[in-house]
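User: what does the whole thing look like in 3D?
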Amino acid sequence: QVTLRESGPALLKPTQTLTLTCTFSGFSLSTSGICVSWIRQSPGKALEWLARIDWDGDKYYSTSLKTRLTVSKDSSNNQVVLTMTNMDPVDTATYYCARYAAVVGSNNCEAYFDYWGLGTLVTVSS
Amino acid sequence: SFELTQPPSVSVSPGQTARITCSGDAVTKQYVYWYQQKPGQAPVLVIYKDTERPSGIPERLSGSSSGTTVTLTISGVQAEDEADYYCQSADTSGTSVFGGGTKLTVL
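Assistant: Here's the predicted 3D structure for the full assembly of 233 residues, as structure tokens:
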């Protein structure tokens, strides 16, 4: 059974750095073809893709946010960590981690998400 | 980067057919995926690779593609289909993008 769970601070002040952890089970990020992403959703707004990390350590970032984002993995503890620097009230959102669907026998993951965490709401306010 | 465009809202009466479109140049080059999101919940995949339906998704949800537009069709709409729907695609560089979302209202 695949599960993902996001954790991190609920409230941050402007300019602070956000660190979120995605703890997952039911799969391993050491397995070829496994990839995990971070996605956020501001209140009442659309989903926004942020970053991705692959089983082999490859990383991809949103063009508009890449200077502020870092994604890393701790495969032994089944965790993916996202950091976002210089937080602003406009970054207030629910942050989700999600797994890309795996392709059996391939080193590449699919381009869509088959499992999502429940999300964690992060509010940025002074 | 690339963009996916969706209508902000679609309204239909129960039993009618709802069509939600997703358009953009990327649609002609990459597959599109559809997610359903109900209030307070995480998105759920309902269509993958333009037309494929995951197990457990009702047959009344279907996907199609024509030119620069892909369409999510919900036939015989039910009250439980009221939700936000998002299309998503990915480019060859490894990044993904979501459409702006469409709120489906069942009248």
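In plain terms: The first strand of chain A starts at residue 3 and ends at 7. The interface with chain B takes residues 37, 39, 46-49, 52, 58, 60-64, 96, 101, 110-114, 116-119 of chain A (CB under 8 Å).
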